[in-house]
Amino acid sequence: MEKGLISVDRWAEGSQAYFLTNLHTDHTQGLSSTWAMAPIFCSRVTAKLFPFKFPNFNLTLLRVLDLGSWHSLSLISPSTGSKVTVQVMAIDAYHCPGAVMFLFRGEFGCMLNTGDFRWEKNCERAKLAKEMLLNALKDDAVDVLFLDNTYCNPTFQFPPREVAVKQVADIISSHPDHDIVIGIDTLGKEDLLLHISNALNVKIWVWPERLQTMHLLGFHDIFTTDTSLTRVQAIPRYSFSINTLEGLNRMHPTIGIIPSGLPWVVKPFEGNGKLFDSLLTSGYNRSKVSSKGGKQNDKRNGNLESVKRFHKYVYSVQYSDHSSYLEIEEFIKHVQPTSMKGIVSSSSCNVDPFYYFGGICGINQPSQKLDNEHQTFGRGGGIEKKRKRVGRLGFYLSRVTVMRRGRKGIKLDEN
């Protein structure tokens, strides 16, 4: 796609239309209430939440894209001055409220930007989104896939969110005399909090700004800012710390739960505290990936490793709003892209998706191996390939020359 037409989650000058996959801060860096450069296309839920995040924003610049429908944009080629038609479809990314992926097609071919996404294999909502995507593609090939590669590493094998929410509820119910604090972001993990409330018949405390967000999303009776009404509190993740929990425990027994696909700290707690049996039993069979890429099933239901006690006051539960390694693999098998790029280039826990998945792309391209001279070890100990950054979750291509080659799809030559 020619530079100067569209940008996804990138807010520099130079494009004619801008697309926002979700309202998490790492996708809105550079966007502000004074934005006036061009229209912004997003989902209906994102548009509803937008004024709360960006007060006094000129809402006439927002363009709502309904899920599953093609929308046509008439743009002007910066190089030739001729009219360019771009079609775009928004598809549920099932990440946080309003999160979508964008499918683009036109004379340049077909491109898919996933933004952040989580498509669990047995999730009905994800199945509907997958069906919507495959129906939209029909006989078209995805020429370039911009992929959420947050957990593009065999190390990250965590359970579906359905399992993780039950684990969190088990932790809480096994501590009936404790106050509970759960570290969350300003948007996301609503399903987790709703499950806790329904399973344990309790209200959830949230801070005032988060309560406003919950009300905008239609949740009015479950959340409160009155601490006397509940022992379960969802606090901002940035305020979740050992020091905070130690201070709370001087007043009343309190445990903290951090729901994340990443381990919260390096070493688990080695004290005498034991997890209750109800917490360690689940029908989920953890799947491991060997160094040779083969899958090995660990059916030990009584030793589910996705829950760890890292401190006498802290439990870590692998509740992730990003796809796991195996979910990414399944997604790529369905999409069969001709080429792909990871949209996360700064994390130490992922590598270029071609390293693991190049062999299952539509052109059956072999995996790109890491050159030892270009490997560094990040803070988490994972290998990170140094490469030119394409913006934080950005979709901002240099000009490309497109050549159709029969059934082989499109070859993109960057100038």
UniProtKB/TrEMBL annotation:
A UniProt-annotated Pfam family: DRMBL
UniProt subcellular location: Nucleus
A GO molecular-function descriptor: endonuclease activity
Annotated family: Belongs to the DNA repair metallo-beta-lactamase (DRMBL) family.
GO cellular component, one term: nucleus
Domain (DNA repair metallo-beta-lactamase): residue spans on this chain: 222-340
Superkingdom of this protein's organism: Eukaryota
Protein name as catalogued: Protein artemis
BP-aspect Gene Ontology terms: DNA recombination; double-strand break repair via nonhomologous end joining; interstrand cross-link repair
Keyword annotations of the record: DNA damage, DNA recombination, DNA repair, Endonuclease, Exonuclease, Hydrolase, Nuclease, Nucleus
